[in-house]
Amino acid sequence: METELSKRLGVEHAIFGFTPFPAVAAAITRAGGFGVLGAVRYTAPGDLARDLDWMQDHTDGLPYGLDVVMPAKKVEGVTEADVEAMIPDGHRRFVAKVLAEHGVPPLADGEASGWRITGWMEEVARGQLDVAFDYPVKLLANALGPPPADVVDRAHRHGVLVAALAGSARHARRHAEAGIDIVVAQGYEAGGHTGEIASMVLTPEVVDAVAPLPVLAAGGIGSGEQIAAGLALGAQGVWLGSIWLTTTEADLHSRALTAKLLAAGSGDTVRSRALTGKPARQLRTEWTDAWDDPEGPGALPMPLQGLLVADAVSRIQKYEAEPLLGTPVGQIVGRMTAERPVREVFDDLTRGFERAVTRLDRIAKRSRS
Amino acid sequence: METELSKRLGVEHAIFGFTPFPAVAAAITRAGGFGVLGAVRYTAPGDLARDLDWMQDHTDGLPYGLDVVMPAKKVEGVTEADVEAMIPDGHRRFVAKVLAEHGVPPLADGEASGWRITGWMEEVARGQLDVAFDYPVKLLANALGPPPADVVDRAHRHGVLVAALAGSARHARRHAEAGIDIVVAQGYEAGGHTGEIASMVLTPEVVDAVAPLPVLAAGGIGSGEQIAAGLALGAQGVWLGSIWLTTTEADLHSRALTAKLLAAGSGDTVRSRALTGKPARQLRTEWTDAWDDPEGPGALPMPLQGLLVADAVSRIQKYEAEPLLGTPVGQIVGRMTAERPVREVFDDLTRGFERAVTRLDRIAKRSRS
User: Fold this and answer.
1) From the CA of A368, how many Å to the nearest CA of chain B?
2) Residue A110: pLDDT above 90?
3) For position A9, what pLDDT does the model report?
């Protein structure tokens, strides 16, 4: 599966796999794809350095990337405490009420929420970058539009390509003007933050909007046939996130959550502001229902909502409060029905792609050479 | 573009074009596709017979189909007057208020709304069928799931294939069990009634759910590249509706509406219950905003909403009340930027498909034979 972009990055297949787990990212790279490690949960630079060391030892010199969450606009002088102070008491009481209704115990005294100081704080993301540029990372992706201009420049000086997610052609054009190298067109059906335009329509719109910049199709892709569809739409590669969540190398820290993912159908996700304050697709749970309930207080805007629910999310995960337990995931979750090694999933993708191209050749009445 | 289904129906290309306009349906068929005439607005059987006569004279003996709106479950003994009586006065006042705010005049005395007695009434649809079976219609499609069993049997006795739209794998399986021949997998991005699963995910789910029945991919398709994507996902053909609305053969009876369609972007549609009471994608207008407003009374369930707004929709169209003027259309509306003849649109589709297959062959490193 060779495109100009895959050649430029030196990967066999134009399959980009986003994952928060180093073992998954490394396995994607070893299988012939391009693993992208999500950095948002690395609040301590030393932890990121440790995992990038591990990646170096487990990728056979093959290329991989890093995904950070960095707002393009800097808000000067605002601390986490300032943001905390903006959260209404009524919302805090609502969180406590929902958790109490489900009997979710508090964290132990002094037990920090892994989510509390999140990577979307620019200083945290910059700390991650200081580490990352010491490693031969080939791609820096940013989930919230283009990173700040100095970060783009710094990446380019290190020979690192910069990618940014976009949910509309307008956003994609803005990203291109900010000097990024690759646009990830993230369709409505994708897990995590998404807009309302589905991949079938979004991908070619973004391709046309930013040409000749390469575009990756993201959202709804979990089979080789879907990869063929994304590439037919003009993308130079595909970006898959959800599908790796149920690989054997993934470590969700919760058997109950893995079981929920394996059982969920394509209709069991919801685009909800419950997680961060911006619409993000995730498993539909009693937690998302509570925030989406018109009778409830509703989610706060980003970044307030993320801070408000940080401890609660940790508690739900730690105690595996099943009805509340969720995760960002796309509509493709309906196809995630068994835990399998990354290599097996990956080989299915490339085989399915070949099958789809053979079928299209037949439909176009071309014999295979 | 040849699949088993296109061969079975005797068409050159597996492109199914749904349209309420005979001139468009005939032009699609003449171009090598399969034109499907929407029958919902033919309340008088004579009008349908007149237009099917015209179709016969303008399709050179090539195949075409008919699309009706027929609920599978019959509600015995319920008249239109019974349904009218179920509409709350508050909702009627809301309609009057919104129209008054925009200065929309009433219809002339005795002027019937073309929408008033709609084709979803089973007796109207059965009247259409009595006419249709006198013509060599090759396909009967139903927008509300499978038609009643006796209608499926009658179609099969006439050698007519039956298609039904589905927005989920579960619905598709139910349709297959009802004995239909083709499932149209209608994605979230489509115009008209849709579910929440996007085409990229829905198409292969439905293909697997009803195999070996053939599936048509619908939703988000308006280019040859999108056709290649739909077929890569396992469909045996594609079903396009929106793209024909701005062809020169289409007759929207409103230059203002055509202008709105040509100007709209992919983000200018909304999935709203304003039109029929069930979620249907359409242009977002001040009319849909009024019904989707949490402060308003909200849309009534189907079929009440359709009856409630029938006159209002006619008035909005007749007087071209621009801010309220809309139509069902999919997210592909962003690509409808010029009025063009059906033949030109169709040839672009087949050329774009060839281009996409050539590109995929290159990505798969196959040389073209």
Assistant:
1) 7
2) no
3) 97
DSSP string, A140-203: EEESSSSPPHHHHHHHHHTT-EEEEEESSHHHHHHHHHTT-SEEEEE-TTSSEE--SS-HHHHH
Q: Are residues A323 and A354 in the same domain?
A: no
* Alpha-carbon Rg for chain B in angstroms: 20
Tens digit of each residue's pLDDT (9 = 90 or more) over B238-282: 999 999 999 999 999 899 999 999 999 999 999 999 998 999 999
The model's confidence at residue A117, banded by pLDDT at 50, 70 and 90, is very low
In a domain, B138, yes or no: yes
Q: Are residues A288 and A362 in the same domain?
A: no
Cβ within 8 Å, pair A201-B225: no
Residues B188 and B275 in one domain: no
Span B139-180, pLDDT tens digits: 999 987 788 899 999 999 999 999 999 999 999 999 999 999
* pLDDT for the residue B117: 47
Q: Which domain holds residue A93?
A: 79-116+254-338
Q: Give the number of residues written for chain B.
A: 369
Tell whether B363 is covered by a domain.
no
The pLDDT, as a whole number, for residue B51 is 97
Same domain, B161 and B299: no
| Residue type present at position B360 | L
Q: Do A367 and B367 touch (CB under 8 A)?
A: no
Q: Which parts of chain B fold into alpha helices (H)?
A: 4-9, 22-30, 45-57, 80-85, 89-101, 122-132, 149-157, 169-177, 199-210, 224-232, 255-263, 286-292, 304-318, 342-363
Give every CB contact of residue B312 below 8 A, 6+ residues apart in sequence: B95, B98, B99, B104
- AA letter at A224: G
pLDDT of residue B4: 97
Give the gap in angstroms from C-alpha A55 to the nearest C-alpha of chain B. Answer: 28
Mark which of B201, B216, B248 sits at the end of a domain: B248
Interface check B230 vs A, CB under 8 A = yes
Nearest to B360 among A232, A332, A335 (CB): A232
ipTM reported for the complex, 2 dp? 0.95
Residue numbers in B near A268 (CB within 8 A)? none
Rounded Cα–Cα distance for residues A1 and B364 (Å): 5
Listed residue (B369, B345, B350, B362) closest to B1, CA to CA: B350
Beta-carbon pairs below 8 A across chains A and B: 176
Window 129-188 of A, Cβ < 8 Å to B: 168-169, 187-188
- The residue ranking higher by pLDDT, B33 or A302, is B33
- Two structure tokens written together for A234: 């003009």
Strands annotated E in A273-324: 280-283
- Could you tell me if B115 and B253 are in contact, meaning their C-beta atoms sit under 8 angstroms apart? no
Q: Is A225 in contact with B205 (Cβ distance < 8 A)? A: no
Asked if A169 and A213 sit in the same domain, the reply is yes
* Among A181, A67, A163, A124, residue whose Cα is nearest residue A306: A124
Judge whether B80 and B113 are in contact, CB under 8 Å: no
Our count of domains for chain B comes to 2
Give yes or no for A350 touching B (CB within 8 A): no
Predicted confidence (pLDDT) at residue B120 exceeds the cutoff of 60: no
Q: Please, are residues B136 and B107 in contact by the beta-carbon 8 Å criterion? A: no
Residue A73: per-residue pLDDT: 63
Question: CB–CB of B357 and A364 under 8 A?
Answer: yes
